[in-house]
Amino acid sequence: MKKLFYVFFSLFLITGSTYAQETEKEKTPQKGHIDENKFRQLKDVLATPNDQRTASGAPGHQYTQQKVDYVMNLRLDEANDKLYGDETITYHNNSKDHLEYLWLQLDQNMRAPNSQTPLAQSKGASGWQTPAQFVDDNMGKKKDFGFKIEAVKYEDGRDLSHTINRTMMRVNLPEPLAPGSTFTFKIKWNYLINNVVDDGGRSGVEYFKDGNKAFIIAQFFPRLCVYNNVEGWQNMQFWGRSEFALEFGDYDVKLTVPADHILEATGELQNEKEVLSKEQRKRLEKARKSYKDPVVIVTQKEAEANEKKRSSKTKTWHFKAKNVRDYAFATSRKYIWDAMAVDINGKSVMAVSLYPKEGNPLWEEHSTRTVANTLEEYSKLTFDYPYPKAVSVNANDGMGMEYPMICFNFGRPDADGTYSDRLKSGMIGVIIHEVGHNFFPMIVNSDERQWTWMDEGLNSFVQILAEFDYDAKLFAQNPTKNITRYMSFDQSNLSPIMSQGDYVQNFGPNAYTKPAAGLYMLRKTIMGPELFDHAFRTYSKRWMFKHPTPADFFRTMEDASGMDLDWFWRGWFYTTDNCDIGIKEVKPIYLTDKPNERTKQLQAQYPGYFARLGKLVFLTTNKEDANPADVEAYINDLPADKKANLEKLPKFMYQVEFEKPGGLVMPIIVELTYADGTKKREVFPAQIWNKDDNKVFRVFTSTKEIKKITVDPDEETADVDMSNNAWPKKEESKFNKFKNKMKD
């Protein structure tokens, strides 16, 4: 997440733009019809509406989605970096279809010995090198990563037929699962946890110099794929980049870890008395009533003492979570723990942070406050945050990953505790971003693997607004200006936003910054905050805990705002065109008493109007053809009432030809600077280009002389070339002249 319309000199009853355009038409040969209309509707692109997804962008009266419940018992083997799990899955078929099998995701198999991910990565000129994270540095052999599926069984213990296809597993049902029916089965598994620093990945174990470890664990269990009316099963392989689409359900999870660990996870803790000390429970209760500042539940001093121990005992933490689409947890004996309450429209939600001493003082100063601010700001623009908490966990440098109610974030000062503003802004920014993912896609549950921008782009947009609110000075930025460098890349290095996430050039700009910049532009420049915010909130609420598609987003934004935005979606999302709008020519317009062919045409067209003037006054863009003395004499001879009317008319007129070398249509934002230093700004809507995609004309009138005309003065339309955006043009520097001469 303005408009400008100047009526031309009223004495002549017609706009200068019409005159100029008609004149140009006489000079320019007309091309044959080519379907390049930038304003044509998206009906040829978007899916046909139906009873599950309406033309307005809302879920239809027949909309359905599946539900999957999990009961899990997990055990962490800290010494050997292994995770063991037993899970019972209950699948609810809420669709109208009979299902012959179920598909599950096995994300950990992306790094299994037989993974094809390294084979798909081109490395170096020959492309033969194997990525280091798949090789044991000491033995030169592939590490034994990936799921070890020990058993897949019916609820009664009988073996259940299944087939593993790399990162996917098909469970073969004994008979088709009827609409409205459920199927319960069990899976027993284990896997070697990857070193998240050396082996890479979105989760894993981090080793510290003192011999301690921190486990940030996610995508760790076989979980159901989405089945919907758009594409049936979403069973695309996981190649490591594009994330996932999942079903909502209820989780009942017991996690057994070393007794001296502090643990946080998706869901609400069910057994505080069994896993927390009396003092910790007392501090936690205080945090639940502290809305201003975080309360420290495990202090740094306590964490430092704790990390020197190695308990041989275990504790089992029990969590339950309702209506979530995934599960994650973090555990370590090194963790400091603080929390505070956040008031979300009368409901109390907990903002929580876990971090080792290596994260201080940065984390104790900002993490939990950032979580709280994020929940508040995102709730304003979308919906009230529905979950009981949001947790930020400090992980290794470069980490930023999200799951329901919990996320893993980077940010550690130097050993002496000092840090730069760049590190501070990076840490705060990534916490806002990852906590914000609770809204997109953990609640507004889009398909990340298919349409990455629907969660990353939307989330990055709201992140910009939340950052401004947290610290406007630290996060001073112009998203539309920042994206211009990317949009001016050679076309061979660009992909449309509407590309599947595994098959795009420049993944970051494509999925994050370009969609975010586009939405920022929609809000600030094209729609205005009032219309945009209402439409964006409508989309968010319509698709809470549901599976939206791009068409649902595009249609809702238009439906709730009353604006036709197909031209914007088509250009910004479906093409790699850029915006370049400039001033080609400015012609001052003078008064004369010499008629030309055009004014004769006007006289014939409007005889009654010109008869009332008593005498003709004409226009010219040629100063030599003007006859100011005769015009002045004519005005002096007029009756007093007509003379008074003429004196009110503008004394200065300028015909401006705007050009558009770029492929995108955008509003034309014009700033006029007058001789006395004052300024005036006007905005022409994008529809100004609906008759001619290359050039348009406007005439500006004023009682004061105009000394400068600037297009897009605040650089808010992502214009990739500002050299043609001002009149009179700045004289080219000697260096640029030399540089351009060398190019020639």
Task: Walk me through what this model shows.
The relative contact order is 0.11. The chain is of the alpha+beta class and 744 residues long. A seven-stranded mixed beta sheet has the order 4-7-2-1-13-17-15. Strands 16-19-20-21-23-22 form a six-stranded mixed beta sheet, with helices on both faces. The chain is elongated, with a radius of gyration of 32 Å. Residues 1-34 and 124-131 have low confidence and may be disordered. The chain is built from 18 helices and 31 strands. Helix 5 (362-381) crosses helix 7 and helix 11 crosses helix 12 (550-561). It folds into four domains: 10-38 and 580-743, no CATH class; 64-247, Immunoglobulin-like, CATH 2.60.40; 270-315 and 329-445, 2-Layer Sandwich (Zincin-like); 447-563, no CATH class.
Question: What would you say about this model in short?
Answer:
The protein is of the alpha+beta class. The strands form 7 sheets. It has a 7-stranded mixed beta sheet. Strands 16-19-20-21-23-22 form a 6-stranded mixed beta sheet, sandwiched between helices.
